[in-house]
Amino acid sequence: MASRLSLLEEELSCPVCSDIFRDPVVLKCSHSFCKSCLQQYWKQKGSRECPVCRRRSSMENPLPNLALRNTCEAFLKERSLYKLCSAHNEKIKLFCLEEEEPICVDCLKTTHRNHNFSPIEEAALGRKEKLRTALTPLQEKLEAFNKVKLICDQTLEHIKSQSQHTERQIKMEFEKLQQFLKDEEAARIAALREEEEQKSQRMKEKIEKMMQEISSLSEQIRAIEQELGAEDVSFLQPTAQVTPEYYCRAQCTLQDPEQVSGALIDVAKHLGNLKYRVWEKMLGTVQYTPVILDPNTAHPKLSLSENLTRVTYCNKRQPLPENPERFDCRSGVLGSEGFSSGKHCWDVEVLDIHFWVLGVVKESINRKGNISLNPGIGAWCIGHWNGTYTALTSLPTPLTVKRKPQRIRVQLDWDRGEVSFSDPRDNTPLYTFTHSFTERLFPFFGYDVHICPLKVSVTVT
Q1: Looking at 1-76, which runs of residues are DSSP E strands?
Q2: Are 347 and 443 in contact (CB under 8 A)?
Q3: Coil/strand/helix, residue 434
Q4: Which of 17, 103, 336, 374 is most buried as measured by Cβ atoms within 10 A of its Cβ?
Q5: 98-112, 183-197, 373-387: lowest mean pLDDT where?
Q6: How far from 65 is each of 7, 30, 31, 174, 366, CA to CA, in Å?
Q7: By CB neighbour count within 10 A (0-12 exposed, 13-18 middle, 19+ buried), where does 38 fall?
Q8: Alpha-carbon distance 337 to 213, whole Å?
């Protein structure tokens, strides 16, 4: 078998590369070559000639030798079933344990005399076991990479969805602001037009009255001027109209005309601090919330409001990416801003909610798995379970509440190391944690709660 394969291999080898034909083509002179070998040869020679007989070829694209290609493929397939010793051209059946290489029976009589050996199947089985052992961590690593890639793919889609949703929200908010400005502009222009109409009407009435007085005076002047044009004798006759009574009537009894005070548009009222006045009025339509929720940290079963101030628990798990910042078992969400100094305060509306958790947690808190909130893991919180109020200390501490609070005030004094909770209706203290903080703290919220907005005021100094 070995001799037959060896002879056949010579017949099926390309004259240029001496390897088994790959994609063979045939020239008109009947010589065959690998297609790539022939093209490379022609390129180097600068002419199309047969590498064997040097006969020039008129074919720029030689025909494929399909029969030869099929024969080569069959030969390669058959040869793969037989591994032959390069020295003795015999089938390899043994494995030398000392030099760790496959050998044939003749090798034991020559180069591997007195060496320990084992059957090739047995040696291969041992190596396959070692390789299989090495394969396991690689498969685990591949699985880990595939899992992270899947998360990255989901994250990419979520990023696009987040961007589109956020863009819509931004446009909606600016549309509201633009509508407010349009309405305010229309209202101020309407006020200007109303003032213009009132003062124009007042001025028109004044002008009409003055026109009547001017007409009366003009008539009197005309009559007097006619009398003055008469002859002296006639003017002095007893029958003349010019009598002492006439002199009295000829005197003007009208008061001197007066300028109208406050007739002009009050421009200062309409333009004075216009931008500030509009902005001041705008403050009455907007809200400021001291803490904003971070949706990238929210547990998949928590739903956040559009303005990121309310969190609601829902039974259905939302399709969200498993990013490192997100809680995956503990149903919680963090505020978007952390604190590493100073005093901070926010009120949370709880109303008749049966279950809630409030407080602060350190930035490095473990967010994966079913964690138990307590100061030992970096969480300073209180909670409510069906009428029971508890401080989440290492061993939960029951809290005494005289009346059911509708709001909880959370106060953080990072520098003094205090986190306190109280009822803002009468400032009744509920519980205070003390600790020496060393890293940033984030507000923590669990289940159904609403962060209360603050009243916005402006002081001009």
Answers
A1: 24-26, 32-34, 63-64
A2: no
A3: strand
A4: 103
A5: 98-112
A6: 20, 10, 10, 73, 68
A7: buried
A8: 76
